[in-house]
């Protein structure tokens, strides 16, 4: 984009007191256990506190919420009621997660915050707005609903944030986002955060941002240093058995298994729940109350194996995830970036691992991923297991002795991985 000013990728700022934050926020950060800013925080905060529009490109899980929240909390007027900041996110889970983080980061108890998301009654959200909420966090669809009902008035708005902008566009929120931004005052600060910056996101920024400063920490390597990445060549009919053996061999602390479809997630959940107690699936067709329970248990460590679709995976921010397993190779290489962004958040002396199952006819998709991350993914073999059997000419037709059930695909000695 011609309007963007490129920033250096490397920062020398290693303390929050170097970022232009006031003493109240710094004291609260210290009490909350924030010791050192992440790269995106170190680069974006000093610019955002000056009121400039910013685009922050960095992988998921690098501290983007604090990067955009702290400048807003420093500039917002907590003595004045009415919406001053609107933060849009792709999912209810991520919206609630952002809201919780803002409450933790705010040094004042007088902050009033409304969470505007689907799957929850409208009336309590309406009451939050009527009481003078100063910050609203929500999904585009429900935000539009409140605007249409007259509950959400944007005349006092000073800050607009698009969090996970690429994912919001992926799942069809572009018309709602544009409608919302057109209703916002032109004199505002806009912050856009995204793991990737595809053309639709760039066009959105060009249209609705004012000479934004670009902070690019994506580094095409996509956290190669933080995550060991592998692929496993596998016959489609041996993927379930491979997953079983891989879990038994790796014994992950906590893992997410990604599938392309809701049906695929449910199938794996049914199969593995018969052998393990700490398994759950999450996708958009589940009732909201069940999704909440699953995420709560996962964050508490009570669920070690979570089976998720891409959209739901973006709402998961858990520090203990040690492994990501792509049961289905992602259709788009950017989705691979999003998926493995869930891992690699352990202590500095530990590395996360990402495994991708690749069928013999999916080699081109693997190559596209390697080109996207500028890194050759290593091949991995599970001990004493043949995941891929090259097709051999058959001399005769053999009878199939077992048809239908998939239970036989699971190792009966799988145990507590």
UniProtKB/TrEMBL annotation:
Pfam families: DEAD, Helicase_C
Known EC number: 3.6.4.13
Keywords for the protein's UniProt record, in alphabetical order: ATP-binding, Helicase, Hydrolase, Nucleotide-binding
GO CC, alphabetical: cytosol
Alphabetical list of SUPFAM superfamilies matching this protein: P-loop containing nucleoside triphosphate hydrolases (SSF52540)
Single GO term (MF): RNA helicase activity
CDD domains noted in UniProt: DEADc (cd00268), SF2_C_DEAD (cd18787)
Keyword Transcription regulation: no
Key word ATP-binding present: yes
EC class: hydrolase
SMART domains xrefs: DEXDc, HELICc
Family: Belongs to the DEAD box helicase family.
Protein name: DEAD-box ATP-dependent RNA helicase CshA
Native source organism of the sequence: Gimesia panareensis
Lineage, highest ranks first: Bacteria, Pseudomonadati, Planctomycetota, Planctomycetia, Planctomycetales
Primary gene name: cshA
């Amino acid at each position: 984009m011609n309007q963007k000013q490129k920033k250096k990728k490397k920062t020398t700022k290693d303390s929050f007191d170097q970022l232009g934050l006031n003493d109240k926020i710094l004291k609260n950060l210290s009490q909350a256990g924030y010791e050192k800013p992440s790269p995106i925080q170190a680069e974006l905060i000093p610019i955002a506190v000056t009121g400039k529009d910013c685009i922050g490109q960095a992988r998921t899980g690098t501290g983007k919420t604090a990067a955009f929240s702290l400048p807003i909390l420093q500039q917002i007027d907590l003595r004045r009621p009415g919406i001053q900041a609107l933060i849009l996110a792709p999912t209810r889970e991520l919206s609630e997660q952002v809201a919780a983080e803002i409450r933790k980061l705010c040094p004042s108890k007088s902050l009033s915050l409304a969470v505007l998301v689907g799957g929850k009654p409208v009336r309590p959200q309406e009451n939050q707005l009527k009481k003078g909420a100063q910050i609203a966090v929500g999904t585009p669809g429900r935000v539009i609903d409140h605007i249409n009902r007259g509950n959400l008035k944007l005349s006092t708005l000073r800050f607009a944030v698009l969090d996970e902008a690429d994912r919001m566009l992926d799942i069809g929120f572009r018309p709602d986002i544009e409608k919302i931004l057109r209703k916002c005052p032109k004199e505002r600060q806009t912050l856009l955060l995204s793991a990737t910056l595809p053309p639709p996101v760039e066009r959105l920024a060009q249209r609705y941002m004012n000479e934004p400063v670009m902070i690019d920490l994506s580094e095409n390597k996509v956290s190669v240093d933080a995550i060991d990445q592998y692929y496993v060549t596998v016959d489609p009919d041996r993927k379930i058995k491979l997953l079983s053996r891989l879990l038994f061999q790796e014994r992950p602390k906590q893992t997410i298994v990604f599938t392309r479809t809701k049906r695929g997630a449910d199938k794996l959940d049914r199969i593995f729940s018969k052998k393990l107690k700490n398994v759950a699936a999450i996708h958009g067709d589940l009732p909201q109350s069940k999704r909440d329970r699953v995420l709560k248990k996962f964050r508490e460590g009570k669920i070690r194996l979570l089976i998720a679709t891409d959209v739901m995976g973006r709402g998961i921010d858990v520090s203990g995830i040690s492994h990501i397993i792509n049961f289905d190779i992602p259709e788009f290489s950017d989705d691979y970036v999003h998926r493995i962004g869930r891992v690699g958040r352990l202590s500095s002396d530990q590395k996360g691992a990402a495994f991708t199952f690749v069928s013999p006819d999916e080699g081109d998709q693997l190559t596209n991923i390697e080109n996207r991350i500028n890194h050759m993914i290593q091949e991995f073999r599970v001990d004493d297991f043949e995941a891929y059997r090259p097709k051999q000419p058959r001399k005769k037709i053999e009878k199939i002795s077992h048809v239908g059930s998939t239970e036989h695909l699971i190792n009966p000695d799988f145990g507590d991985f």
